[in-house]
Write a structure and sequence with these properties.
The complex is a heterodimer. Chain A is globular. Chain A contains no helices and 11 strands. Chain A has strands spanning about 5, 10-15, 20-25, 30-35, 45-50, 55, 65-70, 75-80, 85-95, 105, 110-115. Chain B contains no helices and 11 strands. Chain B has strands at about 5, 10-15, 20, 25, 30-40, 45-50, 60, 70-75, 85-90, 100, 105-110. The interface between A and B is medium-sized, with 25 and 24 residues.
Chain lengths: ~120, ~110
Amino acid sequence: DTEVTQTPKHLVMGMTNKKSLKCEQHMGHRAMYWYKQKAKKPPELMFVYSYEKLSINESVPSRFSPECPNSSLLNLHLHALQPEDSALYLCASSQDLPGGGKDTQYFGPGTRLTVL
Amino acid sequence: AQRVTQPEKLLSVFKGAPVELKCNYSYSGSPELFWYVQYSRQRLQLLLRHISRESIKGFTADLNKGETSFHLKKPFAQEEDSAMYYCALSPRTSGSRLTFGEGTQLTVNP
């Protein structure tokens, strides 16, 4: 399996809902990432997990809560979102390089989130 | 701080014409440079990375450290090359913090 998968493909939620986005990879990668991408803009890094530990949080509001239950899974829990949070949420993964550092990031297809 | 600049938001060429998508970067250390492509309704996918020095789908890119550039080139554009292209940089020592340029939307006209 050489792909990153994400579910659901589309999600519509109200501002009071609680929902979760899921990401899975079986490539043995130990780094996983969440990005937010607005239309016609580049992806913006939100979180990085390395060996199931949160290593980077790009000052993301607490209404986004990441979780890495194991090395293959990454979740993004959503609560009390705002309409401006509507975007494509991308997951990515990468493997470690000898001597440190991370290899190329491979991206999932994304979840298109609409907040009403 | 690391920064990637793609000066052209939109680029339009005719089929069979050469195409060059520009990318300039600023980073004080030793960077690793990538080109990612996003076709309509498809996932973001790696096109090239500078350390592999390979040609993918006829595209090449050379890292010019003197000019801090990593321009993407193809001698003869095809209609199926129409897509959004992002240049990206990560520090070679860590690789976690991938910084993207704003992207260039390439349209290849018949």
